[in-house]
Amino acid sequence: MYNPKSTKAEEFIDNNEVLATLKYAEENKNNIELIDKILEKARLGKGLTHREASVLLVCENSEKNQEIFSLAKKIKQEYYGNRIVLFAPLYLSNYCVNGCVYCPYHAKNKHIPRKKMTQDEIRKEVIALQDMGHKRIAIETGEDPVNNPIEYVLESLKTIYSIHHKNGAIRRANVNIAATTVENYRKLKEAGIGTYILFQETYNKESYEKLHPTGPKHNYEYHTEAMDRAMQGGIEDVGLGVLFGLESYKYEFAALLMHAQHLEAVYGVGPHTISVPRIKHADDINPDEFDNGIDDDIFAKIIACIRIAVPYTGMIISTRESKECRKRVLELGISQISGGSKTSVGGYAEQESEEEPEETAQFDVSDRRTLDEVIKWLIELGYVPSFCTACYREGRVGDRFMSICKQQQIHKFCHPNAIMTLMEYLEDYAAEPTKLAGYKLIEKEIETIEDEKRKELTKEYLERIKHGERDFRF
Ligand code: SAM
């Protein structure tokens, strides 16, 4: 039976409740009266239930769909302003014992070169990332208790945080590794990780078991209950996601929101972020072999509906998506994007030396622009690229972060912090045209800081950044 307060996967992602939700949504997809009521509730900016949001997702009325997109844009603007946070993935090791049928790192793939970076290689990667201007990374590994034990991840985190090349620093390392124990989550928390990210891949148990035929990841319950263990281990920011293309997107959408509601119901705080990856071509993976691929229009609708359903949860999009697609969804709800990404082990340092091709890549990236190109593009689109990592360093995590978000106060911190970290980027890493565009944007943005005192302080800090000081934050 469906019970969002239960910590059992079969109860908080109850299959019958998902199916009943899909039926309810289908029956009401042209029920304008109900859709209006849901939109009225959504306009309060406090979110929607999975049932309500599922009706919006399948709504067929073009006028109402326009309202849905406009509302998503409005909520995005109110909660996140025009800031976009930048990050890059860092692949430590592609050893993996699982059999995920959509991932080229699956254990049966004998021709993909296996690589696990040494601490020295990680150092080189981090320096390459710092030289691009990155301050925030997401660590990725395959699951392999022998090659990638938790000790390896912890040691790598220490290395990553210890490197300060020129003015560079990784100030927040998020971690995307396989489901693990409460004890290991506690160790990750102690190592100072940012968000713990784990994609569910699919919430449909039957499909999940087929798509993960072998290895520890086969265990649906263990995987689905991972965020509960992470929170029990003291990790306050967790990131959800499904891999769109594996199962019906309507099923995933409803279940993803049920997962978010479950975390909120039990731990008082919903997910910090939601990622929306779509399956991509990779070494021995052909995305066309999966029946549930979604086109760009449905993808945009999913993002808009997530934005409306969980307004205070950040949304992430990676370089799996093209420049055009990213542009479209930025205004609908995305708050974080990766830039200049490499999905291969050792890809950043290799890129500099141009030694080897990317044989170890996890999937093909669509957006191949450099970080500087992405930054300039964002500025030209009117966004403020942000390298801010202040919240978690100031203890604004978990329920503290959410409560500031829900009161729509986060802007007060994020806006000046975004401006200051952009200034750091411009001073240290930007190409001349990016610098010129960035200075202009900053000049305009400072004037929009409402609190006079904070505005003056920001101006003072910006001056000091220009004179070589770093790491100011509110
Ligand atoms: N190994 C970890 C686990 O078991 O959860 C997570 C790290 S994995 C390197 C990161 C994510 O990449 C996976 O969770 C999956 O959703 C995604 N991924 C795998 N194969 C992909 C493909 N062919 N296209 C797009 N994304 C893919």
Tell me what the structure shows.
This protein is 49% helix and 9% strand. It has 474 residues and is α/β, with parallel strands linked by helices. The protein has 3 domains: 10-77, no CATH class; 83-368, TIM Barrel, CATH 3.20.20; 399-466. Strands 1, 2, 3, 4, 5, 6, 7, 8 and 9 form a 9-stranded parallel β-sheet that branches. Strand 2 (136-141), helix 7 and strand 3 form a beta-alpha-beta unit. It is globular, with a radius of gyration of 21 Å. It binds S-adenosylmethionine.
Q: At the first level of CATH, what is the class of the largest domain?
A: Alpha Beta
Shape: globular
Give the beta-strand count: 9
CATH level-two architecture of the largest domain: Alpha-Beta Barrel
Lay out the secondary structure.
Blueprint: H1 9-12, H2 15-27, H3 32-42, H4 50-58, H5 62-80, E1 83-93, H6 119-132, E2 136-141, H7 150-162, E3 172-176, H8 182-190, E4 196-197, H9 205-211, H10 220-224, H11 226-232, E5 238-241, H12 249-267, E6 273-275, H13 296-309, E7 314-317, H14 323-330, E8 336-338, H15 347-353, H16 371-380, E9 384-386, H17 390-393, H18 398-406, H19 410-428, H20 432-446, H21 452-466
Parallel strand pairs: 1-2, 1-8, 1-9, 2-3, 4-5, 5-6, 6-7, 7-8
The structure holds S-adenosylmethionine (SAM).
